[in-house]
Prior knowledge:
By secondary structure, this protein is an alpha/beta fold. It has helices at 3-16, 20-29, 36-47, 62-73, 88-91, 97-109, 116-119, 129-135, 154-166, 197-202, 213-223, 229-243, 253-265, 273-278, 287-296, 298-302, and strands at 52-55, 77-81, 93-95, 125-127, 143-147, 168-171, 175-178, 184-189, 204-207.
Amino acid sequence: MTALARAGAEDEVRRLVPDVAALVSGLADEDYLADDSLATALFLAVRLPQPILLEGEAGVGKTEAAKSLARMLDTPLFRLQCYEGIDAGEALYEWNHQRQLLGIRLAELGGDVLDETDLFAPQYLLRRPLLSAIEHQGPRPAVLLLDEIDRADAEFEAFTFELLAEAAVSIPELGTIRAAHPPIVVLTSNRTRDLHDALTRRCLYHWIDYPAPERMAEIVRRRVPSSSRPLALEAATAITKLRSLDLAKPPGIAEAIDWVSALAILGVDRLGPSIVEQTWGSILKNRDDLEIAWSHGAEWVVERA
């Protein structure tokens, strides 16, 4: 890629995101409400560019931030869901052995002979998220989401960051592939383990707090426009109370949206103990958590809501 083309891509990003206020507005258009602190961190991740590590409890909107950013920039999102035992092949690339075998058989039927370079060609490559993000041709950089990087082991963490630092990958059969537009990298973590200092030092960092009930109600109403503001606020307040309990899986913003959606379909415009008891399953997804909530009672949940 020429320096002129790269400069043109940077100009395009600057046009879309000239300042933090434009980023806040653009994310809001995608129904993602970011406060000034988060918006500033994302702005710097886009414009420096530099990887950003988003941490916070489950359900506070870390993954959705990356998705909304990609939609705002009108660029692809490549998401790698990390888990214990994930390896480089699942993140980067694998060869499509079945297609290679089919190619061999078709060549034999046609009387042709395939050599190794024919079999290890780009059309036989299964591209995983990391390679897809590096190969993206623009016009703007892709957003690469490494979701729940804390669930992967330390060796995989080191591998991915080294690869991203170079914005290139070497495939023995094809050579080195360099990114035309290095991706905008968003890492998320629920802090199931501490990440290595080498990773955190090179990333921008932002902790996403759980929103106050008023903020959550605003988020919910953007996702469930048919709901009333009083209902959204009562539901947000009730969920905030439930989160004060010692729950295994405290409800988050996603559960708030699901709950208000269910309540709206049921024609409910104000919370009451009976409707809470009927719809526990929209917000609590664990038997032990249900028993804890039952022990406090639906009246307690809606008492101040």
